[in-house]
Structures are given as C-alpha cells and as structure tokens.
Amino acid sequence: MDPEELQELFNLIHEALSHVPYAICGLGALIDHGLTGRKASRISILCPQESKNNVKAWAAASGYHVYADSVGVSMRSGTIRRVRIKYIDFGFESLQRTRSSFSGATVLGILSQLDNVAAGYLDNRKRGNERALQIVAGDVFFCLKTIASQRLRVEPQFLPTFLGEDFFADFTARYPEARPEMAKAGIDVSSVLVKHRTASTLRDHNEMLNQYGMAGDVVPPTPGQFEHMRDLKDNKSVYTIKEQDSHDIAEPMPRPPEQTYRHDGKNLDSNIESDQSTQDLRAPVRTPGRTDIGRSLTAPKTPKAVDRPVADWI
Q: Exposed, middle or buried by CB within 10 Å (0-12, 13-18, 19+), for 20?
C-alpha cells in the first residue's frame, strides 16, 4: 500500500473501532513510526482477550467481510485489504499506545512495538528461521534508532521481553552493534547483563540445592504479554514475517484450495493441514505444460531471486 491508501485503511479501522480497546501493531505500526524500505499489503490489530469478539462484531457491523481470523476492508480503489485481529491474555492496559502520526487510529507506541518485535525474534529463533531473524533484527535496530533520535525515555515496564534474559543476552551476543545502539537509546546495557548473569548464578545455586533435597528461592522469570499473542484461531501469532506480503483480497471470500482425489473418491490431502492465511489468496493455478515434464540435466540452473531485508545495520 502507498501512504495514502495506508492512511485510508487506518482511518476506516478507527471509525469502526474507536469505542473499543485496540492498537495497530506489527509492520503497519512500524511504518507509522517511520520505517521505510518495506510496504504493507495488510495490517494487524491487537486487542485484549475479552474484546476479541467485540472487535470482530463491530467490524462486521461496519460492513467489512469477516473471515476466521481477520476482516476484509473495502477501499475506495475497490481493493479489499485484509486486517488480522490478534489478542493477548493479559497486560493490554499497560501497553504503550499512541495516536497514529498520519491518521486518527491508535498504534502501539515505539517501546511496546520494540517489545513486540523482541517477542517475534524469540519465536523465529525457536523455529530456526534465520531469514526471518535477519528481518526482525533490522526492525529491532530501527526501533532503537527511533527511540534515540526522538530522545525518548526508556521505561522498563514497557519492555519485559526485550529486557528479559532470553532475548537480551542472545541478541547482544549475536549482534556486536547491538550494545552501542542500545546505549544510544538510553539503555544501561552493562546493568542489564549483570542482572542476567546474577540470575543465572542463582539458578545454578538453586539446582545444586535441589540435588540435596533443599528448596531454593529462585522465582522463574515472567514472560511478557506479546509472548502469548494469538490470532482468532487461537494460534500463536507473535510477529508475523511472510516470504511474500501478497494478501490483498480481490473477492469477498478466498477461493478454496484445489483437492486431489483417489479413484475411490477419498481426498489425498485430508491429512495435510494448511494455513490459508499464509497463502496468496489470488495466486493463479499453474497449468503444467510440455516444459514441466522434466528439466534438462545439462542446462544451467536459473538462480532464484532472494528478497533481502532493507536495514541500516547490514
């Protein structure tokens, strides 16, 4: 979406949801805070768990197309833009939220958006998705640069995941430039790392006590709100990075996937789970031709184009 269309979409969302708690999050919020180099073809909104059904109901009442985990918003151009609805079980009231820089909508403040990105980093690290980690790391550095350039005060209550041991220790070890960028943003890196090293020592001491049948007093760390973020299908959806952001909807309902049947009529794909949200809803069906029969073993392979993240730190 170009800036004008994104502004239109933000305003339409706010018109429908101005009386319920919500905040635009993810890539849409980052663009609102000034991110360039990546464009959004869809956006995500976040709400508290108790409001998720109300958000969807009010969107339907506004005439939007309703899907399992999202709604489709009709634009002036005739395109239907997808808006995913996500929720968290606790802590929505404590998130940093602010008014959009170019619309009347509510977006996550840059500190809470940084914590959202940090949760996405942990999620993609667990999955072993290195390409997504590079993109997410670029978003972390963008948030840090934005905080530094605006001379914002870093309030720890907005950053439980970012300042947590699982993210902080790994990210500073993996990216040498992380420490100076964090320091520019006003984060006392040495103090945070000392705190985590102390916690690690206490855990080791606690394990030793447990071996002798003695109880320790170490309290396990509490995960942040974004680490429990889910979509309306109740699937974990922390910070979504897609290979292709091609989710524009050209018709009210997505075309169902083609199915393959055996001679006895049973579906060969019945045991295959698919997430329609990760598929291009307008992807054309490719019809095999003569060139699809096989590839010449002597012909050189054509290298595939690779989308590389745009980030100042690379």
A: middle
Higher pLDDT, 99 or 203: 99
Is residue 85 a contact partner of residue 55, using CB atoms and an 8 Å limit?
yes
pLDDT at position 311, please? 37
d(CA 84, CA 100): 18
Residue type for position 77: S
Q: Residue 170's pLDDT is what?
A: 93
Residues 3-195+222-231, CATH architecture: 2-Layer Sandwich (3.30)
List the structure tokens of 314: 């690379």
Question: What does the pLDDT read at residue 207?
Answer: 64
- In this prediction, residues 201-225 reach a mean pLDDT of 63
pLDDT in tens, 114-159: 999 999 999 999 999 899 999 999 999 999 999 999 999 999 999 9
**Are 6 and 45 spatial neighbours (Cβ–Cβ below 8 Å)?**
no
What residues does each domain of the chain span?
A: 3-195+222-231
CA angle (299, 301, 307) in 5-degree steps: 160
Cβ within 8 Å of residue 27, ≥6 positions away: 35, 38, 40, 43, 44, 245
pTM as predicted:
0.72
How far is CA 202 from each of CA 80, 112, 196, rounded to the nearest angstrom? 54, 29, 10
d(CA 98, CA 79): 28
